[in-house]
Amino acid sequence: MTHPTPDTGRGHAAPVIRLQSVQKSFALPNGEVFDAVQSLSLDIQQGDVFGLIGKSGAGKSTLLRLINLLERPDSGQVFVGGRDLTTLSRRELRDTRQNIGMIFQQFNLLQNATVFDNVAFPLKIHGRHSKAEINARVRECLALVGLAEKIDTYPAQLSGGQKQRVAIARALAPRPQVLLCDEPTSALDSETTRSLLETLREINQKIGVTIVIVTHELSVVEVLCRNVAILEKGRLVEQFAVDAPSVERKTALGREIDELVRRREREAREPYSPRPPSQLGAQELAYV
Ligand SMILES: Nc1ncnc2c1ncn2[C@@H]1O[C@H](COP(=O)(O)OP(=O)(O)OP(=O)(O)O)[C@@H](O)[C@H]1O
């Protein structure tokens, strides 16, 4: 059962994710306290593809992990699907996490289990589904990520991109409203990254799952995200719609994203025209 998210006047539609003044600090080995996320509030709407970017150590992964309470905030509230996760019992939280899938940079698959068993895992541990239901759902999810034919293979037999697709299928199996992605393409080459981003975009369009993605690659934001938030030292310093370049960006990262968007728009407008041979360099001329 879901509960209405309290309206704090920040948006019209009830967001699927609402972070309210969340704070997270870590005790360092030298006895100091490090504020990884500082009094941060953020709404993410149902169906959005939302990027979290910032320099290394800015708090992106910590913020993502606050959304499913892999990190518990020291203060503040975390609403997902209208429920305040910080008030739930351990058992309620386990059930609610079915609504929040997650994928990681290193895929985190069960190495000794087949692709079928990896994807079936979250359905089996909750014990609410019949064998036939699990069978059908696993096949459905593998088809969604284009891996139907790999159902009986083991992770070791798959490429990095295929492993990440299995991880996506596993995350989607319980039909979550939200998919959290922590640097999902960092271990992949650029060609595989492109194809995986295309799959994530299709999944978002087909089933409407809200995607929140942490990345250090601005091109990932430009290609995939509708909205982006920029973090600095645990604070949200800027948030905007990716397809609306503006002269008013506060951060260098914001301006770089705008530049990528403008370049893409220019390239889409201008038909491809090869440079005449007189403008080619010596190396290029060798191939003419
Ligand atoms: N469990 C922990 N204990 C102590 N410090 C931590 C812990 N988790 C994160 N930190 C520290 O909090 C800060 C923010 O970490 P986080 O991983 O959220 O940053 P990030 O923006 O995702 O960085 P990166 O891009 O390098 O992954 C870092 O300085 C990190 O060392």
Strand content: 15-25%
H/I helix tally: 9
CATH class bucket: Alpha Beta
- Low-confidence region ranges: 1-11
**SSE-based structural type:** alpha/beta
Number of domains: 1
The ligands found in this model are: adenosine-5'-triphosphate
Query: What is the alpha-carbon Rg in Å?
Result: 21 Å
- Profile the largest sheet: 6 strands, mixed
Question: What general outline do the C-alpha atoms trace?
Answer: globular
Instruction: Give the SSE order as H and E letters.
Output: EEEHEEHEHHHEHEHEEHH
At CATH's second level, what is the architecture?
3-Layer(aba) Sandwich
What's the CATH H-level superfamily name? Answer: P-loop containing nucleotide triphosphate hydrolases
Please provide the count of β strands.
10
What is the strand arrangement across the widest sheet? 6-7-8-3-9-10
Average pLDDT, all residues:
90
Distance between the termini: 66 Å
* CATH topology label: Rossmann fold
State the helical fraction: 25-40%
